[in-house]
Structures are given as structure tokens and as C-alpha cells.
Amino acid sequence: MAKDIQGLGLGLASRFAGSRWAEKYGLRKPAERIAYLSTRAGFKFFGEMMQKREKKQDSTRGERLPERKQQPLFDLSLSEEQQMIRDSVRSYAEEIVRALAHDADENLQLPETYLQDAMALGLNLFSVPESMGGAAQSYSPTTSAIIAEELAWGDFTLAYAALAPVGVANALVRWGTQQQQQRWLPLWLAEQPVTAAIALQEPHPLFAPDKLACSAKSNKQGYVLNGVKALVPFAGKADLYLVAALLNGKPQLFIVPGDSRGLNFTRSPAMGLRAAATGTLTLDKVQVSVDALLGGEDSDFDYRAFVDLGQLHWCALAIGTCQAALDYLIPYCNEREAFGEPISHRQSVAFMIANIAIELESMRLLTWRAAALAEQGQPFHREAYLAHVLCADKAMEIGTNAVQLLGGHGFTKEHPGERWYRDLRILGCVNSGLHL
């Protein structure tokens, strides 16, 4: 009942924020802020209530969120909660994120208070189980994909920076031991934003996620890690890394504190993701404890599923950015005139926009389908692979066409087309770094 009251209150606040009366009297932004903060405070409150419940738990295996029941039909309709989350994140992306994107890309760094402000959305709380003080009731990669999509509508890179720590939390909840969760997940519940990242990508040619050059060897103190990781965000200032390495010929993940001896970071701005301050992370005889192996020795960790969930997260980011491009291009082409009429009256332009909409829907359908299967505990590798192949191909095509449709404006920084183009090409060369 308490949750129903909270949901009702949040719904009223959201509806008030979108009303004409709030717009007329300049109360829209304060109302939205109240909605965000009430969500965060409410989730914390109910999390504390849930912690008081006595619950029997395995001494080593960590908290596991329940999977949703299998459904005979593939249902794309969103629940009331998912729709509310979608509307709130879209509003935040429209009002806050989009305005920050250009300067963040130019300055090669995140806005000073961006991660702190993003916490008001409660993204960190959605990853942590209620029993540990968070807001997650069940395992829902579909909801995570919706959040990523809507946040990327504001900007691809800023969405990635906000969701990279969430991906680490998702992995800890999905695979971590009880001890690992109790030690690290409180960082996601603190007042200060946590910076954490998954380090999987490597700089050598023809890199494949199951053929890692980074290695781990066991010793009396735990494990020693050696290797190089590429496209790691946060300019070497992350609190925590999840590092993929080969242990006895098998890919595993290791929890590496950001201040570990032997970690070195070199900034190397890339074509896209520039605001995330990506670079190369070198591990030179980094010693970690026995507890650093994600899930422990007798783990239920599934490396293939981990990579697939990361790919789906990138797909969701691409879908959000492609949707932003479509929403930007339609009014532009209707208003831009050439030879005495809007350029949208030309069939070549109209067909190109129609194709963007068609491909966008296919990208969303495949991604949500794969996420829904993962959510129900069913095999989803085939669907995740198809979704990533399609999104990697069509995201680059849509980014290219966006620049083309903007004409000379597409080549300048006056319009966001060139930034979309640079960011969307990351899907063709990245293998993970996120986790739904």
C-alpha cells in the first residue's frame, strides 16, 4: 500500500510538471525536481523498510533479483511504472542533458556537477536490490534498456557516462557474492556519485571478447593482473573497475579498486565518447585480493551472457540517439527550403527519413526482444547478436544520413549531426563496457 501511495504521489507530481498551469506560472522545472527527489527519497525509505525483514540467505552467494515469469507472447507494452520512468528520464534528457552536450564534447570532460545531478533520477537505486537499500524489485534489463534509450536521446556520451557505473552495479548484483555486494554496493547508495567502469576492450587488432590478452594469475595473496584496456572512461579517476582477464584460460571479471598499485591511465581522446574522457588503462602486476574474483571460484558467472548484456546496452544507447536524430531531422527538413519549397517535398529526402524511421523500429524491436528473453531467464544470445549486428550497421547509416540531410549544417558544430555521427560509430568497434 505504501508503494501505491508513493506511485500515486509521483504520478501526480509528474502530471503537474507537464500541465499548462505549471508552464504558465514557471513551475514546471521545480515540479520535475520534486518528482525526481521524491523518487529517490521514497526508494531509500522503502529500502530501509525492506532491510528490516529477516531473510535467509546463502553465506557466499550474493543477493539475486528474481527473474520475471515467462510469457507465451512477446509483449512490447510498457507497465505503468516503466512508462513513468520513461517519461521522467526523457524530460531530464530534454531539459538538462541536451543543453550540456556540445560544451562537454568540446571540453573533453563531463560537466562539473553532471553525475551529481544525474543521481536525482535514482539511476543508481534502480540497480541495487530493495533488501540492500535500493529500489530494484526484480531483474529487468528491459527497464534498463528503456532508461538508456531515453537518456541517450539527450546525448549518447553523457548517457554512457551516467550509465557506466550503473553497469558495474548491475554486474555485481547479477553475479557477485554476498561479501562483494555488501562491500561495494553501498557506494551506489551514498550521497556522492560513484565513478565505476567495466574494462574489457583491448587495443590489439581483431580483438574478440573471448580472446583476452589481459591475464590473471593466482598467488597466496589473491590474483595478479597484467594487461592493457582501451576506451576506459573517467580519465583514470574511477573509484572501481571491473576488469576482464583470462584466468586458467577462462575469461573472468575482477574487482579492481581505482587506487590499486600498478594501475596507470593515459588519456587518448577518440572520435566519439569525448566527454567521457576515455583512454588506456594499463595493469602492471596489479595485486588484488582473493575476494576480487567476481562471483568467487564456485560462481554462476556466465561470461557470454555478460558480454551480450553489454552489447544490448550499447544498442539501447544507439536507439535513443537515432530517435533524437529522427526527431530533429523531420522539422528541419520541413522548414528548410530549396528552390522555393521545403526539401522534404523531394522524394529522395522523404524516402531517406522514412527509412530512418523503419530501421529505427527494427533496431528497437530486436533489442527489446533480446532484453525480454534475458529478463525471463531464457537463452538470448542469438537475439542479442542479431540486435547488435543490426544496430551497429544501421546506427552508422542513420548517423551518416543525418549529416547528409542537414547538408552543409551537418558538417558544422552548429547542429548536433556531426556529434551523433561520431558517437554512433562506436557500435562498430566496441564489445562491452556496459551491462544491462
UniProtKB/TrEMBL annotation:
Reported cofactor(s): FAD
Residues covered by the Acyl-CoA oxidase/dehydrogenase middle domain: 208-286
Stretches the record annotates as Disordered: 52-71
InterPro entries: Acyl-CoA_DH_CS, Acyl-CoA_Oxase/DH_mid-dom, Acyl-CoA_Oxase/DH_mid-dom_sf, AcylCo_DH-like_C, AcylCo_DH/oxidase_C, AcylCoA_DH/ox_N, AcylCoA_DH/ox_N_sf, AcylCoA_DH/oxidase_NM_dom_sf
Biased composition (Basic and acidic residues): 52-70
Family membership noted in the UniProt record: Belongs to the acyl-CoA dehydrogenase family.
Annotated protein name in UniProt: Acyl-CoA dehydrogenase family protein
Source organism: Thalassolituus pacificus
